[in-house]
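Recall the central idea of this unit: under ordinary conditions, the amino acid sequence of a chain determines the structure it adopts. In this exercise we apply that idea directly, starting from the sequence alone.
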Amino acid sequence: MKDNYSYSPTFQPYHMVKESPWPLLMSIGMSMEFYGIYLFFKHSNWTYMWIGMTLIVYVAIMWWYDMVQESIYYKDHTSFANEGFKIGVITFIISESMFFFSFFWCLFDTILITKFDFDFPIPGIGMFDPNGFPLLNTILLVTSSFTAHYSHMSIKNNNKFHGVLFMFYTVMLGIIFSYFQYLEYYESEFTIADSIYGSIFFMLTGFHGLHVMMGTTFFVVTLFRMLINHFNDVNHLSIELGIWYWHFVDMVWILLYLMLYKFPYLMI
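Accordingly, the structure predicted from this sequence is:
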C-alpha cells in the first residue's frame, strides 16, 4: 500500500523528527523522581518525588499528544517509519527482559547458594497460597492477553464495536489485577526488609505491577482513540505494539508466579 505522499526527487520516506522539549524534560523529571525516592527513603521527604512524578506525567501526555498528531493529522508515520517503531519496541522489550532477568538471576543464585546454608524461603515467613490471589491474577492477565488480541483483530476487520468492547474488557482486567495485587500487599505477613526472599519478592512484583499499570494506561488511551476513530484496518500499529508489550508483561508474570509463588510454597 502506498503512503500518502507524492514522490519527488527530493522525497525521503523517513520521519524527520522536529525539535521537541520533551526528551530533555523527561530526563529532568526522571532524575528528580529518582532523587526524590532517595530522599523519601532516607529522610521521609516526598517533595521531589511528587514534583518529578508530576513532570513525568505531564511530559508523557504532551509527548503522546504530539505523536498522535504526527501519525493521524500530519501523516508523518510512513511505512518506513513504522518499521522503525517496530524495531524500537522490540529493542525496548529486550532491554526490559534483561532488567527482569537480573532479578530472576538473583533469585536463582539465592536458591542455589543458600541451599547448603539455610532453608529457602526463610522459615517463619508466611507464604502466599499460590492457589489464591496469585492464581486468580494469572488467569486475569492471561485472559487479558486474549481480549487485547481479539480487540486488535476486530479493528483490522473494521469491527469497531467488538474492538472497543474487548479493549474495555482488557482495561478492566488490568485494573482488577492491580487491585488484587494491592490486596495481596496489604495482607502480606512479610515486608521488603524480611530476608532475601522478601526483598526479591517485592522488587519483582512491584516492578511488574508498575509495568501492568503502564500497559493499562496505554490501553485506556487506545480505547479512547478507538472511540474517536483513530484506527482502522490500515492504521492500527499503535494497538499492535501495545499488545506486544502486554504479552511480554504476561510472560514475565507467568515466570514470576512459578518462581516466587509456586516453587517456594512447595519447598515449605
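Residues 1-9 have pLDDT under 50 and may be disordered.
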